[in-house]
Each structure stands twice: as structure tokens, then as C-alpha cells.
Amino acid sequence: MEEIKSVEMLLEDLKNKHKNEMDEESLEIIIDEMIFSLLF
Amino acid sequence: MDSSIQAIYTERIDRFNLAFKRDTPDRVPILFMSEMWPVHHCGLSAEKVLKNPLLFYKAFEKTFSEIYIDGLYGLGNLWIKPVFDALNNSGSYKLTDGIVNYEDKISCYMDVNDYNSLIKNPCHYILNEFFPKKFKVLESGDATSAQALEHAYNAFVNYRQANLELIDKTENVLGIPIFARTLAFSGPDMLLDYFRGFEGIITDINRIPQLFLKASSALNLFITNIKMRIYNTPEDGHFILLPLHLGSYLKPKDFEKYYLPFLNQLLEMYTKNNYTVCLFFENDWTPYLEYFDSFPDGKILGIFEYGDLSKIKKKVGNKICIIGGMPISQLSYGTEKECIDTAKRIIDECAPGGGYIFSTDKILLSLDDGCFENIRAVHEFVYDYAKY
Asked: What is the pLDDT of residues B59-102, one digit of tens each?
């Protein structure tokens, strides 16, 4: 049965998936910026 | 950057920096505040530049070869639509040919019963409770949600890259500084704009003031921490743009209690950490000018939409650098002579003593917000006339 995840958990999965593309700090910044922009 | 462009860029940054410090530069800097105006001026549409950001740069290149400017306030939120499309946004975000709008009632998914959850942990609340309400595709938390989030992430990375490239080319090829490095909000404005809407927030202030105050405090810290992580190296010559919304809709007694403490807290946190803060005073702030005395010392700028800028400068010019003055209504409908007469009066009244930057009173969004010939003539006049 498929696990039901919170958005926080989905974002963690997303970070793990993209962690090799850039350093951790840059990835965290992009995710933070995206969260802020989605409030609009 | 080419050395001649570097020299022009540095000269412009230095000019603004002196004004930011309420000092006197060689002449009054000219700040251009626009979003899609240059795009429309060049006969392009938002749709076209959204698909091909290089065209956006081309619009800047053409427009600012015709109109003299010393710098741009920022870029606005121009390419964010694909991010919302990826999450099947249901209408809270609208793009009408490049102009960002959100519908107040539809956008605000926070219920009054959600206050305690938001106060307890704003990040947790936003991600796990607010977003699934706003973006239904995230509600199920399954593979479909994960895929939508992945698409949103990819769209955001593309948007961000396009923005960075536009900033880079505008600064390094055209030598035009773009000042806003990030956009921030106060806690009360976040509650108004994103979570509760105007009707909700006014009701909350009257019925559950303690929850409003606690939530504003939690959001103030949450957003400031995020912004200091995103823009972690404050630079001279660039600023955090802070639009102010709720304050001017409150009666002064309520303003003192429900708005001013949070604005002052933000200003203290940013200025203490050497950031330059540009406050965008939306609506008329004339009744609140006396409160500016409580602002901390630091590099604080203010763009004013309404009010007598000469009186504003006299009243608060010792606390903040004043930006604005040129009415876009006159740039749209006045004659060239009328516009230049107004610009001369503004310069004569506001420039003495420094700490003043010439700009429009509002952002030029669409082409109707300013006649090209008038803008060009006014900027040429200010360039020649406003020398110290």
C-alpha cells in the first residue's frame, strides 16, 4: 500500500533526489524560495 | 564585465549608496520602477517573454537605450506562473499579460481555527496544512503529489535561472543595477495577503486580537529567518524590498498596537545585520509619519505612492531616504511640459540636502501607465537639472 506523506516529507524526498545537483545550502535556498513564492 | 560598463555600474551604485545613507551624491539618482512596461513598449507580450526570457532582456536593452535610468527597483514576479500550473492551481493566482494578481478571498485558505497551529509552528502549518488546502494535488500525499511537487520544483528552478540571467545581463552588459535582492513581508501583512484576506484580518483584530498578535509575531520571525538564509550576504547598494499593506488601513490607535511593533522588529533585525531595507508605502501613509521616529537608525528607504512628498521629506527625511514623486497619472495623460514642470518642482523641493531618489509614485505595469515620450523627456530633464 502506498505511503501517504506530508508535504514536509515530500520536500525531503525532493531534496534527496536533487542533492547531487548542487551543494546542500544552495538546494535549501531554492526550496525556501519556492515555498515563499507558493504563498502568493 | 567590460571595464567601461564596470565604471558606469560602479558610478551608479555609488550614487544610490550615498542617497541611501541620506547623503548627497553628484546628482539625484533616477530609479525606474516597472514590471511589464518595457516589454509592452517594445511591442512584446508577457506570453512571449515568459517563453523566451532573452526577449525580456532585449526589451530592457532597447528601452534603456532610449530612456536614461540609473537603476531598476527590481523585476517583479514575472515568470512564476509555470510553478503554479504544475500544482494545478485553482485560481488564486492570475496572470493578466504579465501583471500578477491574486484574488483576496479565493487566495486565503486559512480558517480562523487554524491560528493555534500556525502560531505553534509556522513552517509546519504552511507546508502540511495550508499548502494541501491551497493546492489540492498535494492533499493525497501520494505519488501524484510527489510528481506535482517535482514539476513545480523544476519550473521554479527554470524561473529562478531566467531571473538570475536577466539580472546578470542587465547589470553586467547594460551596467544598470537592479536593487531588490529579495522580497519580504511583515507578519501582519502575511496574515492579510496570504492567509486571512482583508475581511478576515479586520474581523480577527477585533474578535481575537491575542491570536492575531501571536501569529504576527511567529510569522515575523519565520519570514525574516528565511529571508536572511536566502539573501545571506547583505551588500551595499542592494536592498530587501518590503511592501507594506495592512498598516495604512488601520486607525492610528490600532496601528500602534497591531502593526508598528512588527514593522519596527523587522527593521531592527535587518538593519542590525547591515541590510538596506526599502519600504514600499502602499496607499497613503501621511497619518502615520509621526511613528517613523521609532524606526531604528540604519539604511532605510521609503517609496511613497501618495502624499505630499515635500512634506514627507521634511517630516521623516532624517530617518529614511525618500523615493518617488512623479505621478504616473501625469506621465500617462499630461503634456511633456506639464510633466517637466512637475519634475522640476519635485526636484526643487525634495533634492536639497540629499537623501532623495527620483522615481514614479507607482510601478509602471502596463503601457498605459506612462507615455514613452513623457518618461523620456522627464528623465532627460532630471539627468541635466538635478545636479548638486
From this structure: 999 999 999 999 999 986 566 778 888 998 766 666 666 566 66
Amino acid at B298: G
Question: Which long-range contacts link B40-43 to residues 24+ away (Cβ below 8 Å)?
Answer: B40/B98, B40/B366, B40/B367, B41/B367, B41/B372
Whether B275 is covered by a domain: the verdict is: yes
The letter for the amino acid at B229 is: R
Number of domains chain B is built from: 1
Contact yes or no for A14 and B134 at CB 8 A: no
Q: Per the CB < 8 Å rule, is A40 touching B128?
A: no
**Cα torsion for B92, B246, B37, B69, to the nearest 10°?**
-150
Mean pLDDT of B332-348: 98
Q: Tell me the pLDDT tens digit for each residue of A8-18.
A: 999 999 999 99
User: What ipTM was assigned to the predicted interfaces of this complex?
Assistant: 0.97
| Segments forming the whole domain that contains residue B182 | 3-79+174-385
What digits encode the pLDDT tens for the residues B300-318? 999 999 999 999 999 999 9
Strand ranges in chain B using DSSP code E only, listed in sequence order: 31-32, 71-72, 94-96, 99-101, 180-183, 239-244, 277-281, 300-304, 321-326, 356-360
Q: How far from chain centre, in Å, is Cα B49?
A: 21
CA dist., res. B332 & res. B144, Å (int): 48
Spatial distance between the Cα atoms of B128 and B195, rounded to a whole number of angstroms: 14
In chain B, DSSP finds a helix count (H) and a strand count (E) of 19, 10
- For residue B229, what is the domain's CATH number? 3.20.20.210
The verdict on residue B37 lying in a domain is yes
pTM over 0.90: yes
Annotated domain spans of chain A: 7-38
A7 touches chain B (CB under 8 A): yes
**Considering only CB atoms, which chain B residues are within 8 Å of A18?**
153
